[in-house]
Specification:
The protein is an all-alpha fold and about 300 residues long. The protein has 3 domains: about 10-80, Annexin V, domain 1 (Orthogonal Bundle), CATH 1.10.220; about 85-240, Annexin (Annexin V, domain 1); about 245-300, Annexin V, domain 1 (Orthogonal Bundle). Helices cover about 70% and strands about 0% of the residues. It has helices at about 10-20, 30-35, 40-55, 60-65, 70-80, 85-95, 100-110, 115-130, 130-135, 145-160, 170-185, 190-200, 200-215, 230-240, 245-255, 260-270, 275-290, 290-300. Helix 1 crosses helix 3 and helix 10 (about 145-160) runs parallel beside helix 14.
């Protein structure tokens, strides 16, 4: 296996050369690749990728795909991509499945900042030559419940929300009442629910959710009717209300399954590593009495 000689300071050229060395010979030195890319931030990874292209006239991602496989290849490839491009890939992957995991779309639409979401949609359009909203809307189904889910997803994905802290308490009180009536009323009108969730800022919606709890004595997610639509609606609300708590729950669900959900686990860790993973891990430890590191090491083996 290749022996890595670390430079005294970060050098994208030396990193690119060491990755190339790790890919040569009888077997790929996977630990060397992890040691390099796993300890580089977003800006550094971008420089390494550019250096690799300039030196070897090959995309680093293509080299990694040839040398690695399985969950390791997926995690390293996602980690190496720019965040907007990574989200575009994740969204497209889930939409290609016969049973899409709509949580992926909701996380991108409801947790990313307005500017980040816009960048994701641009990256998606550049990669796939059509828009994310188009691909969501192109699903055809005779099941009215699925149609409503897609309307909700298109609504939150099409949004460009105000990103400040200000909110209108009068609007919050009015829309808390509207949400209660539309969710629990006999004549359910999804259009009003979608309008509120897809046009209001996070601050405004959290004010609405807080007032809802004050008025009705329980959180808005309590007492939802059953079904896929309300499960999707609950995920949207959780992502808007408390993203860190939501991700801690996704990690717990992914790890506690009889067969670990590797896609969900790697998605959360890779996409939040440079944002709020530290806080998510602290929440996970507090709620599960075991650290994420220990839980992952217990469930997974190898690289």
């Amino acid at each position: 296996m290749t022996t890595i000689i670390w430079p005294k300071q970060f050098s994208p050229v030396e990193d690119a050369e060491n990755i190339k060395k790790a890919c040569q010979g009888w077997g790929t030195d996977e630990k060397a690749i992890i040691s390099i890319l796993g300890h580089r931030n977003l800006f550094q990874r971008k420089l390494v990728r550019l250096a690799f292209q300039e030196i070897y006239h090959q995309d680093l991602l293509q080299q990694l795909k040839c040398e690695l496989s399985g969950n390791l290849e997926r995690a390293i490839s996602l980690w190496t991509l720019d965040p907007a491009d990574r989200d575009a890939v994740l969204a497209n992957e889930t939409l290609q499945k016969s049973d899409p995991d709509y949580r992926v779309i909701i996380e991108i639409a409801c947790i990313r900042s307005p500017e980040d979401l816009l960048a994701v949609k641009r990256a998606y359009k550049f990669r796939y030559k059509h828009s994310l909203e188009e691909d969501l809307a192109s699903f055809t189904t005779a099941d009215i419940r699925k149609v409503v889910i897609l309307q909700l997803l298109v609504g939150v994905t099409s949004a460009y929300r105000y990103d400040g802290d200000e909110f209108d308490e009068t609007v919050a009180q009015s829309e808390a009442s509207t949400l209660h009536q539309e969710i629990h009323g006999k004549a359910f009108n999804n259009e009003e629910v979608i309008r509120i969730l897809s046009t209001r800022s996070q601050a405004q919606l959290n004010a609405t959710f807080n007032i809802y709890k004050d008025i009705y004595g329980h959180s808005i997610n309590k007492g939802f009717p059953g079904g896929d639509y309300f499960s999707t609606l609950r995920t949207v609300i959780r992502c808007i209300r408390d993203p860190k708590k939501y991700f801690a729950k996704v990690l717990r669900s992914a790890i506690n399954l009889e067969e670990t959900n590797e896609d969900a686990l790697s998605r959360v860790i890779v996409t939040r590593a440079e944002k709020d993973l530290k806080d998510i891990k602290e929440l996970y430890l507090k709620r599960n009495n075991i650290s994420v590191d220990e839980a992952v090491a217990r469930e997974w083996s190898g690289d």
